[in-house]
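Consider the tokenized backbone below.
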């Protein structure tokens, strides 16, 4: 499954893109622009690099250049008449849209640091999220000139914020830049899409067109862990999100996350998180 390069249209009279998304959100893709994404209506599965999380209304993420991503909405947002009811707001800009030296100005040291960090994807929260959400929603009704100055105001907030968490792993991001890694990128995307079921190694070898030995060696070099460890960590990470939903029981979550039996799930979870799934849920609720 390849990563598509999907780019929004930008008129020659504009320096950056502001877009109100009302169609089905794009599938797994990347682009050279930096991107600020606000989901105003929607819920489902968010994939950024090798991170998989659930998202809902108000999700706000800043994405670095060429970082693969996808917001996959739940079925309830796809209507019987083939219309889509999700919505989002998007700001995109190239690194040199204000000139090649803008981010290198001494006054922009904080902003440059944040932009560089965004190569892993930044999930924004707290007061930062509240302020930027208000500014992005306001941009819908502003002139092109006023939108530009709103973006500069957003930059000011981002230049000093610490209210964000990183999404993708550094190893994934670093290795994703090389064209030589395309076969492994496709395999990783396949794992991320199918981790909830049992994945045969033969499937990955076919997708990556690698031998057994080459695949395991390359995978470990790229992700800094074995394929088995990567898959378990992916499943445990997803189960943590499901554990925040008290309507699902532990057994349901184990199978939904790709584990074949509850005992293995409990064992792997405790090894990864140093507590049982039940304890994790209890700590989260309290």
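A designed sequence for it:
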């Amino acid at each position: 499954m390849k990563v598509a390069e999907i780019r929004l249209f930008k008129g020659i009279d504009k320096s950056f893109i502001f877009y109100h998304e009302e169609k089905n959100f794009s599938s797994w893709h990347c682009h050279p622009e930096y991107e600020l994404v606000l989901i105003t209506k929607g819920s489902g599965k968010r994939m950024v690099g090798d991170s998989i999380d659930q998202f809902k209304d108000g999700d706000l993420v800043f994405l670095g250049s060429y970082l693969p991503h996808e917001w996959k909405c739940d079925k309830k947002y796809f209507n019987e008449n083939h219309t889509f009811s999700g919505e989002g707001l998007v700001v995109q800009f190239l690194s040199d849209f204000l000139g090649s030296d803008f981010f290198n100005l001494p006054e922009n040291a904080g902003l440059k640091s944040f932009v560089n960090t965004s190569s892993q994807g930044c999930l924004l929260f707290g007061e930062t999220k509240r302020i930027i959400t208000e500014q992005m929603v306001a941009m819908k009704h502003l002139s092109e000139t006023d939108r530009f100055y709103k973006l500069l105001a957003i930059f000011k907030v981002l230049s000093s914020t610490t209210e964000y968490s990183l999404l993708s792993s550094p190893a994934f991001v670093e290795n994703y830049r090389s064209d030589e890694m395309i076969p492994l990128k496709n395999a990783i995307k396949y794992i991320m899409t199918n981790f909830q079921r049992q994945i045969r190694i033969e499937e990955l070898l076919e997708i990556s067109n690698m031998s057994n030995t080459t695949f395991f060696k390359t995978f470990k070099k790229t992700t800094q862990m074995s394929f088995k460890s990567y898959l378990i960590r992916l499943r445990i990470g997803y189960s943590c999100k499901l554990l925040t939903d008290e309507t699902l029981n532990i057994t349901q979550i184990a199978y939904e996350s790709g584990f074949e039996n509850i005992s293995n799930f409990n064992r792997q979870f405790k090894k990864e998180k140093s507590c049982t799934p039940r304890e994790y849920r209890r700590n989260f609720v309290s």
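DSSP finds eleven helices and eleven strands in the chain.
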